[in-house]
Amino acid sequence: MKPAQPLLRVTALSKHFPIHSRGFFSRQVGTVRAVDDVSFDVAPGETLGLVGESGCGKTTAARTILRALRPTSGRVEFALADRCVDLAALPERALKALRPRMQMIFQDPFSSLNPRMTVGAIVGEPLVIHRMARGRELEDRVVDVLRRVGLKGEHRSRYPHAFSGGQRQRIGIARALIMNPALVVCDEAVSALDVSVQAQVINLLEDLQDELKLTYIFVAHDLGVVRHISRRVAVMYAGRIVELAPTEAVFKGALHPYTRALVSAVPYPDPDVRMNFRLAGEVADPAHLPQGCAFHPRCPDRHAPCDKVRPDLRPLADGRRVACHLHHKP
Amino acid sequence: MADNGDILLEVRGLRTSFFLDEGEVRAVDGATFSIRRGRILAIVGESGCGKSVTAYSVLRLIQPPGRIVGGRIVLYPRGRPPIDITALGEKSETLYDVRGGRISMIFQEPMTSLSPVHSVGNQICEAVLLHQPVARREAEARAVAMLGRVGIPGPEERLRQYPHELSGGMRQRVVIAMALACNPELLIADEPTTALDMTIQAQVLALIRTLQSDLGTSVLLITHDLGVVAQTAADVAVMYLGRIVEEAPVRALLKDPRHPYAMGLLQSLPSLSQGRARLPSIPGSVPALTEIPPGCPFHPRCPYMQAGRCDTGGPPDLREVAPDRLAACLRAEEIHT
Ligand SMILES: Nc1ncnc2c1ncn2[C@@H]1O[C@H](COP(=O)(O)OP(=O)(O)OP(=O)(O)O)[C@@H](O)[C@H]1O
Ligand code: SF4
Ligand SMILES: [Mg+2]
Predict the structure, then answer these.
(1) Domain segments of chain A: what residues?
(2) Would you say residue B42 has pLDDT above 50?
(3) ipTM
(4) Residue nearest to atom 5 of ligand 2 (CA)
(5) Least CB-CB distance to A269: which of B264, B271, B275?
(6) Which CATH superfamily is domain A16-21+28-327 in?
(7) Which of B268, B278, B291 to mutate to test the interface with A (most CBs of A within 10 A)?
């Protein structure tokens, strides 16, 4: 079977931020490699999980892909009906026309909605900004999308404060979906929700994906949620992807020592499945990365080349990708 | 549940309300639970169910417009007469001795407990000097020992550092060191790892477990995460709308919940259902605390609700439904299969 043409192909994407010295005559004294040489594909209709700890670059990667940030280097090829464009190289104007195709859903259902706008205005705003609908048609589309996310048409005249956390997250989802996007990046989209509500919103995201043929990049730190929702997972550490593999392979037999540690830190709600986390130390600081593999100072499997040669993310025979000298001879 | 010599803290029918313009917010509305000596009890529940207000009530830290309006909180120190915390005067010596001495507390945000302008060492020493009859030198030695104990490398040098020089995980370790430096009988930890990364959370939970079993301190662990409960606690109390709806040893409750709300919470966890099956979810959402439903407060969302029975009268009592198991559901025995 020929693999489907990817909807998104990210190649060697990097986003570096300069660090400036303090004071009036500030000069650049270093670089934070927030995202460094990141590559992956996402197939149409797929959900790719992007996991890692805070500061590992997940959100920066997502924002750089959507061109909310300008990439330092790399390519972001996005498939349209008739052609493929490189989002990383596109001028602002051309980008604006494509914006509706890619949307983002944010973590915080409390601060991401303007408290002074009605729900109808919030949800319809993207259509107004892009001049895609007005008047009667605008109203109809707002009502339609509110129903799709499990809210009611009448809700459009209310203000966000009158809604619970789960309902506000539905409003955020409605706002993203009204543009008929192909790609939706969910950045910790269910992290702030309580479990009972979280389950409702996860179900909703999955239903909408089936109905509307959506492609998701699901950025999250909660591995339980990611395991449930995504078919493949990319694990980031210090700005780089260290492992990219089918979800169950990651949970049942991770290859990278960091992934293994991360999986062992998941507190399962079962007292007979003991958390068995043994790693000392804390995540690497992307402003002061060590030489070689960024994980080597903490790695239980560290060996000769690890503190000198940086391992690249490369495929193994079974297609799983891993950036570790244990699995590739340098 | 246990015979009385076993119990360190007993909370019976605790009610704490906030009197606001829009009415009385019954944040804790008849909570009953007990903490056994030398064990970790987790209180688990969703946002706003009253977990933190319960913890603050135990330390008598509720400020106006809030007030404890009913119930009793009794501490049973070893070899001493019981202390009725609810009856203590605001300025009594005993309350002072309880707060930070017999019971200490750590919070979700480590900076809640730390002062940004004092060195870590000073803060731990102050905490010790405040509650223990020791000299400065002795307090300092204890601070160093405690920092070492919570896994902070190079404790002597760390004493001179300020909180902003430490990572979030290190700060939470310092807070734990500070809380344990006075040998409290009870440690209350309110979401101590919620603000931390997964791997740092794993380290801190392991630390709390080890210290608890080494020192024999009882712990009241407040969390919204059933995973944290399973990995850390011995007993668990599930809270909904200001009441404990089920209390049992951890394994019993997680493997075989008896209250429909506890069942619903467990089923809706994504990590237990692998692959893309639909998650069973609890319908509806938590009602406002100013509009607590009559009868069983969970009845509008409960799949086992029986009209005429569950939706009238007062809330069901937390009662023994099986040996060592308490649940506040009228139908607990009928629906358990
Ligand atoms: N100072 C206050 N004034 C008014 N209402 C309050 C105050 N403190 C708490 N409440 C209310 O009491 C209820 C219980 O709050 P509490 O902080 O105990 O919840 P919680 O279970 O700890 O939730 P979370 O998981 O979000 O921390 C909430 O509805 C809250 O809004
Ligand atoms: S008392 Fe009735 S409504 Fe309440 S939990 Fe039990 S069955 Fe459900
Ligand atoms: Mg709280």
Answers:
(1) 16-21+28-327
(2) yes
(3) 0.85
(4) B329
(5) B271
(6) P-loop containing nucleotide triphosphate hydrolases (3.40.50.300)
(7) B268
